[in-house]
Amino acid sequence: MNYEYVGEGSVSGFMIAIPHLGKRDVFVGGDGRRTSLDFAACLDHLANILLPNAEKIVLIMDNLNTHKEAPLYDAFPPEKARALCERFEMHWTPYHGSWLGMAEIEIGLLGRTCLDRRIVSVGEFTNEVKAYLARKNEDSKSINWQFINEESPIKLK
Fold first, then answer.
1. Residue 13 and residue 36: Cα distance in Å, rounded?
2. Could you give the number of structural domains in the chain?
3. Burial class (CB in 10 A: 0-12, 13-18, 19+), 16
């Protein structure tokens, strides 16, 4: 018998790690892509679903081309976009720096725990991720990730 691999596409999600609450979430846009409009919807989800009472949300993100405030103005009316922008304090990791932060650790755990096999649909992907997050968030432990600037030349060789 001869078997042929047939690629059915891929799904992208945005990992959200909330260290002080010991919570994490994965936002998957409607079609499983990673567009600027998906990023805007993710920020809206973060601000209005996950942290609706937070006055200021500090975001630490990598330098993906969609990780900017501009998509909020493409996705929402100006008033809503401005209100969201005012709630976020955005910081980006260095372009050429090694970054193994909390979100990267969570992505690794998610991949090894429930995405280590072929998943045939966006629906199955979403169900697997929801089940994983429910287990992880049920036993929420805050994340105490520390990095001392003076140690950076040693740790980031």
1. 12
2. 1
3. buried
pTM for this predicted structure: 0.78
Using CA atoms, how far apart are residues 36 and 126, in angstroms rounded to an integer? 20
Q: Which residue from 77, 79, 23 is spatially nearest to 54, judged by alpha carbons?
A: 23
Look at residue 118 and tell me if it is in a domain: yes
Q: Is residue 103 part of a domain?
A: yes
Distance CA 125, CA 55 (A): 32
| Tens digit of each residue's pLDDT (9 = 90 or more) over 26-84 | 988 877 777 889 999 999 999 999 999 999 998 888 766 667 788 999 999 999 999 99
Are 91 and 60 in contact by the 8 Å Cβ rule? The answer is yes
